[in-house]
Amino acid sequence: MVDQYQKQLETFLTTIDRELEAFPPAKELEKATGVKKSYFAIGGAAFVAILIFFNIAGQLLSNLVGFLYPAWASFVAMETASTSDDKQWLTYWIVFAIFNLAEHFNDFLLYWIPFYFFFKTIFAVWLYLPQSRGAEVLYTKFVKPTLSPYIAKGQSHPAQAKGAQSSVASDVANGLKKD
């Protein structure tokens, strides 16, 4: 049983090393120190997780996790011919933007949630990991059904969408006035 876990761990580390081959600084660091790239990656991730967990620059680090890798992956997606990854990252940015907007208006409540930034970081990673496709799940279940009624059939030009934007804005304003 231990051998099975050891093989899985070795496979995991090999996968990380293979993925890090695309980053020249990681290769240079491995060459200079003799320590595997995967060890640096796992150690760095653990260090950041501990800082976020104990809220040492938790908000900053959590936002960096939510912005840096997705921004890089979005740039790479825009530079490739395939459009499937474009859709994944557009979906991520829509869901992440809505989440951050909601967070901004509720920060006085979120302050009281223990380990909030740790959970936010896990949530952001869940949103963008291709294995979970969390952003796609939330977009399909919540965002699309909520916003679709505001898009008229056949609207494809930004000038045509102006009416839909005004409708959404007035509905939101009316909703705020009722409260």
Automatic annotation (TrEMBL):
Stretches for region Disordered: 157-179
Any Gene Ontology CC annotation: nuclear envelope
Top-rank taxon: Eukaryota
UniProt keyword terms in alphabetical order: Membrane, Transmembrane, Transmembrane helix
Principal subcellular localisation of the protein: membrane
A biological process term (GO) from this entry: nuclear pore complex assembly
UniProt GO MF annotations: membrane bending activity
One Pfam family linked to the record: TB2_DP1_HVA22
Transmembrane feature ranges: 39-58, 111-129
InterPro entries per UniProt: TB2_DP1_HVA22
Subcellular location as annotated: Membrane
Membrane-related topology note: Multi-pass membrane protein
Family classification: Belongs to the DP1 family.
PANTHER family: HVA22-LIKE PROTEINS (PTHR12300), RECEPTOR EXPRESSION-ENHANCING PROTEIN (PTHR12300:SF161)
Name the UniProt record assigns to this protein: Protein YOP1
Organism: Gonapodya prolifera (strain JEL478)
